[in-house]
Amino acid sequence: MTKGRVFKGLILGAVTLSLIGSLVSCGKKTTEPISKSEILLDTPCKVTIYDKVSSDVLDKAFDKLREVDKKMNAANEDSEVSAVNNQAGKGYVKVSDNTFYVIKEGIKYGELTNEKFDISVGPLVKLWHVNQRKENDTEPLPTQDQINQAKSLVNYKNVLLKEDTKEVMLKEPGMSLDLGGIAKGYAGDAVAEVLKSNGVSHAIIDLGGNILTVGSKTDGSDWKIGVQNPNNERGDYLGTIEVTDKAVVTSGIYERYFIKDGKKYHHILDTSTGYPVDNELASVSIITNKSIDGDALAKAFCFGVDNGLKFIESQKGIEAIFVTKDNKVYVTSGLKNNFKITDNNFKLMN
Predict the structure, then answer these.
(1) Exposure string (b/e) for 33-56, b if CB count within 10 Å is 16 or more?
(2) For residue 244, what is the domain's CATH number?
(3) pLDDT tens-digit profile of 290-322?
(4) Which of 68, 145, 236, 272 has a 20 to 30 Å separation from 210 between CA atoms?
(5) How far apart are CA 313 and CA 308, in angstroms?
(6) Which domain holds residue 190?
(7) Which residues pair with 241 in a beta bridge?
(8) What global pTM score does this model have?
(9) For residue 344, with 0-12 CB atoms within 10 Å meaning exposed, 13-18 middle and 19 or more buried, which class applies?
């Protein structure tokens, strides 16, 4: 999915966490896990089940992922989101209940974050097209006039809804939705429901690093999740947290970017300036009960450390880990006795 992760400030929250010691047997015989992987939502998706169930359950989980991809991926010309975008400034488009729900949640987070998160970021996503650019790119940067034009079309308040008929309209011609900052989170929750309804009590859903744990490990202990070191390759973590029935979602500047004239331009866009967010942060990880909430709130990245911590602390049941470019780590109060630094190059500051 064109990850238009947004926060009047943000796009494309690339996320990378890793699962550590996923199953501990404690001397007891355990069921051999089953898993399946596929590229969907423009990201590697993997579901691993630790219960004794038919592999058909994995097929049902990936059917759900394909359904979300088909309906909500703005890069898919036949998606419901594309249908809405194609009618911008012209009229309402009827969408499925699920797509309507995700768009409505996106608007809710636009309001909650005082316009920091914005699902109408599509024009800026298309203009920068970070996903399509090479690391050392020769293509010219967008001009200031192009940025100003695209930025003028970003306003979630111009996403109009008809609740009774599940119709959506973009008020201004040229507007476009990009649900990349929230649809993957919704997909994680939807897959979890599929698994639970088919007898699964212990599983890991990993959607390109957006991790959702179903239950605990089979021995009843917490899952140990590694938080990506933003300076190194995927799978190299700087610390760990232990969770059960939680989502862990990260937004960072280290995965999707290109370099032009020696400067890095990453995928996390500031919709108030039209440029990639420029602050002291390298990544933000959100820990919450629902993956859709974690996906949207990962854009707390754009607030920076101080305001980001205040914002997350004001949200009930939400915790966060903020990692700066100079390897300092800040955590919210609920993680004080949970998050553990495992890489001595990083320093826990609070």
Answers:
(1) ebeeeeebbbbebebbbbbebeee
(2) 3.10.520.10
(3) 999 999 999 899 999 999 999 999 999 999 999
(4) 272
(5) 8
(6) 6-348
(7) 225
(8) 0.90
(9) exposed
